[in-house]
Amino acid sequence: xxxxxxxxxxxxxxxxxxxxxxxxxxxxxxxxxxxxxxxxxxxxxxxxxxxxxxxxxxxxxxxxxxxxxxxxxxxxxxxxxxxxxxxxxxxxxxxxxxxxxxxxxxxxxxxxxxxxxxxxxxxxxxxxxxxxxxxxxxxxxxxxxxxxxxxxxxxxxxxxxxxxxxxxxxxxxxxxxxxxxxxxxxxxxxxxxxxxxxxxxxxxxxxxxxxxxxxxxxxxxxxxxxxxxxxxxxxxxxxxxxxxxxxxxxxxx
Length: 253
Description:
By secondary structure, this protein is an alpha/beta fold. The chain has helices spanning 16-24, 44-47, 76-80, 96-106, 114-125, 127-131, 142-148, 152-163, 187-194, 220-231, and strands at 3-4, 41-42, 87-93, 134-137, 173-175, 198-200, 208-216, 236-244.
């Protein structure tokens, strides 16, 4: 038995072509090879293993806090040095299941999970999503985009924007310098690697912006995006990701 988790009314209607394509390419679970009744389905057993981020969380960066923490409490790194973004939230803790979802999207170009990802990320962003003026995706350098042909952060931003009736600006942020991949770098190396590489290509004076990305690892990319948006005049910068790495040794800014 399977269960479907949908992002909203805009994603529920499926035409004849979609149903016919299912006969040729049967939809499979987002977390296994099991054939399911429609795209975006996760069987209940695996659904129950997903680790959604939940309170108590750092009021700033969304890092998990001890059970006794109260509303407004922040983690040590945010108290010692506030990030450029106002808040950051993630839908899932980055474990083996979340890793599969992210890599299927990021490296496999698998789009059938986007509606449900948008629902999860909307829940994670909470009231900040209702307040933002624009959604913007974390950018990819044009040379990498030419090789991959898509930016998974842009896919997530578009899905989230459409599901919630919000405008989004796919070219609002640009990577003006190509740097080596962030994979395998320490927090400090990630900050240096992305420093000065991201610019805002539009004016955002007085606007409230939500930056969308796939994974929050150390926060270096989101920090660089927020700094660029602040420089362009943004009044508030919030961020949401599909998943985030959770380690006790994380340095978040």
